[in-house]
Design brief:
Blueprint lengths: L5 H39 L1
Length: 45
């Protein structure tokens, strides 16, 4: 019986992937909102 089980590493990997996806979605949404707020008013002038 080893110190760490493969299931533990799998859980860490799944948690890391979910956290990374959530962080990327959050940052991407903020960046998109900033770009849209700068581009759309300039296009309407």
């Amino acid at each position: 019986m080893g110190l760490f089980k493969p299931d533990l590493f799998r859980s860490f990997l799944i948690g890391f992937l979910i956290g990374t996806a959530g962080l990327a979605a959050s940052i991407g949404g903020e960046a998109r909102a900033q770009i849209v707020s700068h581009v759309i008013p300039a296009a309407h002038q």
